[in-house]
Give the backbone structure.
Amino acid sequence: MLQQTQVATVIAYFHRFIQAFPTVESLAAADEQQVLRLWQGLGYYRRARNLHAAAKAIVQEHEGEIPSNVDELLALPGIGRYTAGAIASIAFGQRAPLVDGNVMRLLARLFAIEDPIDGTAATKRLWELAQKLVPAEQPGDFNQAMMEVGATVCLPRGPLCGICPVRSLCEADKRGIAQSLPIKKKKTKPRAVTHHILAIERGGKFLFHQRPAAGLWSNLWQLPTCETFACDAEVSSDDVAAWACEATGVKVKKIVEISTFFHQTTHRSITFVLWRCDAVGRSQPREGFIWRALDEVDDLPLANPQRMAIERLQ
């Protein structure tokens, strides 16, 4: 949960999650939709799916015991090099390195690394340095201390060099370049896209369906959402009606645009346009669609933009 989310946000989610799944076995036995529903609001839903898949693997392949060495941890879904090192060193006392963003920044300054730290060469060197530095005795304490210094002293902007416990070892401080490190590659600008959400109502209920198993917000539920219109296209109610009939099998009328809002993901800047309309007659939607009242969707895991759309409809 903490990999992409701030501590203050995570706390309540963590307690609810642990209450629902107090053991690895209970998580492994859970339905994915229940896992996603408890995760909704945290974003990056692949983390939840990987956690669920890892629990299944631990039960099936390791008799319910989390493995203690890096190689076996790396074989679990969602466990990367950093997480494997953290678990192995902190939980099991293994001499394993870890490199997160805080440790990257600290090492880049300690050793005055002027290559982009998110580049292949620098990343390799950072891991090699971490491997050499981590001691055999209390490796977990050492790794946590590295992360703590990076998080509280060796700050991204305005590092507190005056109180740094390893200042005498810092090559960047000696050269007077600590403020300019670390260097990162220029990020690619998120792509601007527009999604049109269509709230189709019949008898007080709205049409919902589940997203595909792959891609953005996979396996979450949503109001029918068109992602194919060009970002700068002039979209009319006739365009929306034609798409709705083709995508859902339901003909619609009284189409009104009621709201526009914005959502940012890692790679996309998404403008959502919310439309409301009525279903025509009793035509049946395509397979996979369901009718639900807006106050009866608590069991459906929904991405934040869909929850925002429902709030606007209510």
